[in-house]
Amino acid sequence: DGMFEGNAGIVEIANTGSANGNNAALDEGGGYVYAGSEEGVTRWAYSEDADELTGAELVVTGQPSSGTHALHTVHVFDGWLYVHSGSENNAVAPMSPEYDTDRSVLKRFDLSLFESGTPFEWGSGEVFAVGLRNMVGFTRDSDDRIWGVVNGMDNVMYAGEDVHDDNPGDDLRLIEQGGAYGYPYCFTASRVLVDGEPVAAGTQLVAATDPEAPDPDFTNPHDDAWCADNSEPPATFMTPHSAPLDLTFFDDEPQGGLPEDWRGGAFVALHGSWNTSPSVGHQVVFVPFEDGAPPM
Questions:
Q1: Does residue 86 come out as left (phi exceeding 0), alpha (psi in the -120 to 50 range) or beta?
Q2: How far apart are CA 219 and CA 248, in angstroms?
Q3: N or C: which terminal CB in the chain sees fewer CB atoms within 10 Å?
């Protein structure tokens, strides 16, 4: 009936340690459940009949979990383990002027090469995409394309002006191999005025942060022209700072009683903001798709 009945039916069936990941991922073909752990990724043998998961096995170790984006989202697609690592803090560029390849990334690991007892080292993973500040949720659509929702930077400034109340858009992105998605050098314009005229929504603009903010040492070596050439615009975006946590597509059977004209679109869960007043988000939104993409 659409109403949560309380936690009486929730049973803990496994524990990853002191810090858990953002999700659990079932690899039905491989017979395992995967979840992020403090040091990387853990898995358990899975059966539909199992009431608890035992025999936890480390699959990835050495993944950083310091700072404000410590948790790891994982999925298994076509025999590959995909793992996201968020940035250590709001705006950091440890490999400046290049994109970081250790954090703010989506990496993948070939599970056919995994040997029990010898977990993958995080550094050995294939970098699939960079410039993803905190992609808490990602999934695939019925065409096997990867889509992710990204939490944008706080306290953003542009051309010396504080624009953080209306920027950046929290991105919904098509994630492609080799893609570069802006962070920390570029942000998605939601509402930016230049000479009184609005910049086109979705434009990638050069980012700066408030020197009074907790991470004043971030210095951006790039400009708008670099962002136009080196940061893919999102497919669309959520309200700035609404903090999207996950998305799921309405594109498979069965789908219950949802209206048929919603088919092909996506639902996005929004956590809600701290960097705006009043706070925004705190809801689930529907994003329509037409011809395989949402409107900007």
A1: beta
A2: 36
A3: N
| Alpha-carbon torsion angle 217, 132, 15, 62, nearest 10 | -70
Picking from 155, 148, 168, 161, the residue whose alpha carbon sits closest to that of residue 90 is 155
Q: How far apart are CA 275 and CA 31, in angstroms?
A: 41
Q: How far apart are CA 204 and CA 224, in angstroms?
A: 7
Q: Check residue 256 and give its pLDDT.
A: 73
Residue 53 has pLDDT above 60, yes or no: yes
Q: Give the separation between CA 61 and CA 64, rounded to whole angstroms.
A: 9
The amino acid at 142: S
Q: How far, in Å, CA of 243 to CA of 269, rounded?
A: 8
CA–CA gap between residue 239 and residue 273 (Å, rounded): 10
Burial of 125 (0-12, 13-18, 19+ CB in 10 A): buried
> Considering the entire predicted model, what is its pTM?
0.92
Contacts of residue 171, Cβ cutoff 8 Å, sequence gap at least 6? 148, 149, 150, 152, 181, 188, 234, 237, 238
Task: Say how far apart CA 2 and CA 232 lie, in whole Å.
Answer: 37
Write the single-letter amino acid at 68. Answer: T
Cα–Cα distance measured from residue 37 to residue 70, given in angstroms and rounded to the nearest whole number: 10
Q: What is the mean pLDDT of residues 104-112?
A: 97
Question: CA triplet 65, 66, 72: central angle to 5 degrees?
Answer: 25
Answer whether 56's CB lies under 8 Å from 14's CB.
yes
Distance CA 147, CA 29 (A): 22
Mind listing the pLDDT tens digit for each residue in 188-225? 999 999 999 999 999 999 999 877 766 566 889 999 99
